[in-house]
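Long-time lurker, first post. I've been practising inverse folding by hand and with some scripts of my own, and I keep getting stuck on stretches where the structure tokens seem ambiguous. Below is the full token string for one chain I'm working on. Before anyone asks, I'm not after the true native sequence, just a reasonable design that respects the backbone. If someone could post their per-position residues I'd love to compare against what I wrote down in my notebook.
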């Protein structure tokens, strides 16, 4: 690292890992990359990014069918989860994502509500926000078809769809010059 600091390096590595997860890279490759990222975060003691990395790695393991309850939770990590909205946002988003993937309707609804409650107070980068907005839209339209309070979920799905459309229309880089 010739320039920049540990936090910047950790953030870059973290966002690279998130990107391969959501891009659909082979789960075995994603698992191996996650193990490298976790080792780096632990070595550099970047706990605030280690925790969300572990949540994503948990999702990878669940999707692979080899998940056990996490053994990494410490008092410091529990404290950060309880007090940091950004970490809570990642925690609840990963839970709702896995609930959606495995079609666990009640868990998905509960985790979506928790995610939306804490994400209103969290700061995120546009790339993370766009991933989350896309999946909230998917989850919402599925919930609208499956629930009695479908109108609320349908509105939430439309809100996500409109947000994605707005970002696409107002983006300075829209592939018009290619």
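-- Answer (accepted) --
I ran through it position by position. Result:
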């Amino acid at each position: 690292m010739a320039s920049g600091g540990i936090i910047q390096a950790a953030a870059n590595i973290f966002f690279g890992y998130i990107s391969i997860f959501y891009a659909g890279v082979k789960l075995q490759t994603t698992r191996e990359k996650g193990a490298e990222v976790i080792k780096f975060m632990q070595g550099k003691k970047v706990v605030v990014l280690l925790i969300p990395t572990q949540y994503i790695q948990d999702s990878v393991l669940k999707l692979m069918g080899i998940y056990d309850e996490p053994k990494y939770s410490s008092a410091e990590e529990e404290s950060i989860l309880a007090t940091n909205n950004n970490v809570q946002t990642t925690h609840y988003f990963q839970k709702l994502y896995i609930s959606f993937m495995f079609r666990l309707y009640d868990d998905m609804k509960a985790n979506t509500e928790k995610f939306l409650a804490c994400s209103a107070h969290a700061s995120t980068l546009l790339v993370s926000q766009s991933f989350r907005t896309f999946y909230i839209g998917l989850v919402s339209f599925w919930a609208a078809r499956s629930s009695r309070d479908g109108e609320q979920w349908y509105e939430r799905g439309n809100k996500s769809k409109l947000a994605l459309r707005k970002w696409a229309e107002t983006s300075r880089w829209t592939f018009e010059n290619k």
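A couple of notes from the structure itself: The CA atoms of residues 144 and 153 lie 5 Å apart. Helices lie at 6-23, 27-44, 47-64, 75-83, 85-101, 105-119, 126-146, 150-170. Happy to go over any region you disagree with.
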